User: Which sequence fits this backbone?
């Protein structure tokens, strides 16, 4: 499975099998995460076999079960950190999918206290991603149309349409899809459209989808 196939097939999964991640998969994921950490400059940690993070009542409220493995994204308290966490977090999420695993972004339904103990002093906790062997592969969700998320008028270049189509398959908080894409001076641009939870994280996620499918860097 390549990344484009992972974009098509990946859906959020909250219920996992009580099965440890194989050593071979751990090694591949750890190496990939290390590359992302060096490239991004943000904090990215993988914690295996940690049922306590999603073991609280709030996790059960969020319908998580056997979410024993997590990816923790964090960084300095600057204006770009949330978008970077979204961008590189989704890069890892799609890689996780190619390894035969499932995943789910989580902003609230986990023990923040237990996660914060893994961070350095002064480090901002951004978001957590649960992953593992899903009981199912998840279900497709409702999506906006291309026209609803495109600000530019007129004909769309083929590369731009492919990018937007991939962006519409990206996970966003409560499926809000509050983003807009356009073209400025021949280059793709993306902005947050309206208020909502995790908007900047979502913007990073959809930018990564767009870039993978279009082959163009988003400004």
Assistant:
């Amino acid at each position: 499975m390549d990344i484009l196939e992972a974009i098509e097939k990946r859906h959020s999964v909250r219920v996992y099998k009580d099965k440890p991640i194989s050593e071979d998969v751990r090694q591949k994921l750890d190496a990939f995460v290390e590359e992302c950490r060096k490239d991004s400059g943000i904090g990215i940690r993988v914690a295996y076999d940690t049922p306590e993070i999603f073991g609280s009542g709030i996790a059960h409220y969020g319908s998580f079960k056997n979410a024993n493995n997590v990816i923790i994204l964090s960084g300095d308290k600057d204006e770009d950190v949330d978008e970077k966490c979204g961008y590189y977090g989704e890069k890892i999420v799609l890689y996780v999918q190619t390894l035969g695993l499932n995943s789910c972004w989580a902003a609230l339904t986990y023990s923040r206290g237990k996660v914060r103990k893994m961070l350095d002093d002064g480090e901002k906790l951004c978001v957590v991603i649960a992953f593992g062997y899903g009981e199912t592969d998840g279900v497709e969700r409702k999506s906006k149309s291309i026209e609803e998320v495109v600000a530019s008028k007129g004909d769309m270049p083929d590369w731009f349409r492919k990018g937007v189509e991939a962006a519409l398959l990206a996970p966003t908080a409560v499926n809000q899809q509050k983003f807009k894409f356009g073209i400025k001076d021949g280059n793709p641009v993306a902005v947050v459209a309206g208020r909502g939870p995790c908007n900047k994280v979502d913007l990073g996620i959809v930018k990564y989808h767009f870039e993978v499918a279009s082959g163009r860097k988003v400004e």
Remarks:
- Helices lie at 3-9, 23-40, 57-61, 81-98, 112-116, 158-167, 199-214.
- The chain has a mean pLDDT of 93.
- The domain at 3-132 is CATH 3.40.109.10 (NADH Oxidase).
